[in-house]
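Hi R.,

Here's the input for the copper (II) ion complex you asked about:
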Amino acid sequence: MIRRRFLLGVAGLAGLLAATLFAGWWQVDGPGARTPRLSIAGGPPPLAQAEMTLTDHEGRRTSPASWVGRPTLLFFGFTYCPDVCPTTLSDITGWLEALGGEARDINVAFVTVDPERDTAEAMADYVDMFHPAIVGYTGAPDEIRKTADFFGAFYKKVETESGYMMNHTATVFLFDAAGNFRSTIDYHEAREIAVPKIRKVL
Amino acid sequence: MNTASKALSIALLAGFFFAGPGKAESTQFGDLKVETPWARASIGTARPAAAYMTIRNGGSATDQLVGVESPVSGMAEIHKVKTKDGVVSMSPAGPLPIGPGETVALAPGGLHVMLMKLRQPLEKGARFPLTLTFERAGKVTVDVPIHGVGAIAPEK
Ligand SMILES: [Cu+2]
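And here is the predicted structure with copper (II) ion in place:
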């Protein structure tokens, strides 16, 4: 009887462990993965393959494919974001200032994951507060979804008491002038690490 | 509202929000000390704003920050930013315990006071009052200077 109970207990524990492992796999590597940072093995495809159409903060229709020819720094966010996005845009501003003339010919793209509220006009008001090289992009919801998927960026709307917020990938993507993905800069990474990473794609 | 009372309320508001420089940047409050509070300027009132500070507990008992409120915001909460696999999310932090001798920093990328439903834009160079409610120490109001939209740290 005791032995039976013991065996049942062991089986139960093993089952629990398997379930935990499975849940971990599901969320990290499996279909439930919320690990979009490099959800595409080896990083996003070359920019030349990007076929979506976005609108920049000055109202021009354009595509990420048009970034080819100059190195590109790409970041996803939204202008109703009170903490992470202004911090990242400030960090980027600081990196660009540190690079000075070296970063003269770089595309700095800030793509919204909240096209519902971030019109081209809203993007213009916002990017105006940061480094002049930063260009804001918005687009139709399906084009934004296609863009994020292309780059392996994640975003999700979360309802709150006062409206909604967006969970999103805050990683900065770096591409060389040929449009090939080269590296990422993590959220709030130190300038001493970020600036050399950018220098490598210049 | 007549002209005189309108003028008076404008003067009061101006005094309230433009108290000017020269105020202490830290507030000692019983065993607690609230240091270098600051907020980012807002663009209009539609978007939420964030405020930051450092809280030191010099006492011998744990206290908890249980609430925040400000006349500039119709809804203020303490939020925590989490980063997982490059994805950032933000959610109410709940009561914030500060142990004896401990310092809790509200700083970009970690904890912030989220100021939602702004009643007025937060303008760079102005200030606003923010009331913190602690479980043991009670309520304290600090004067928060507003820095630029691009600020990431309190100005020295
Ligand atoms: Cu928040």
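One thing worth noting: The first strand of chain B starts at residue 26 and ends at 29.

Cheers,
M.
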